[in-house]
Amino acid sequence: MKICVTAAAGDLNARVHWEFGRSRYFVIVDPDTMAFEAVPNESRIDETGKAFCIAHPETLLNKGVDLVISGNIGPNIYHMLHTAGVDIATLTAGTVKEAVEMYKSGGLSIIGAPIPRRVKEEISMLDVRSQSLRQELEQVEKRLGELRK
Asked: What's the pLDDT score for residue 47?
């Protein structure tokens, strides 16, 4: 599992940032080992000085994030993450480490995705394998029919 926490800096002691699109960093943490990767939010401000974060969900999905912990998450980003199977929790105080610890202790209210990302990936893999097995079975049955003639 990987947890992304929006943060003011790129480490576990950084404060949780109050808004997804304007956070300076996305700190991606393995809750079992507390190993982390700090991803700078390079799209934080667009040319007009407004928050711009359409690329962020794709970046987080490519990194295998299963849960996002942030202050406010706008409706577009929320929808994109939720649809992709990423769980969401809101938190406006504390550090990245404290946020992960709160998750581990069950202290966060999680907005679950309809189908978690890892389940979607497994379904996709099993669909491909199932199709392959069907094709293989058809070939075996065809050959058996030829041999029995």
From this structure: 54
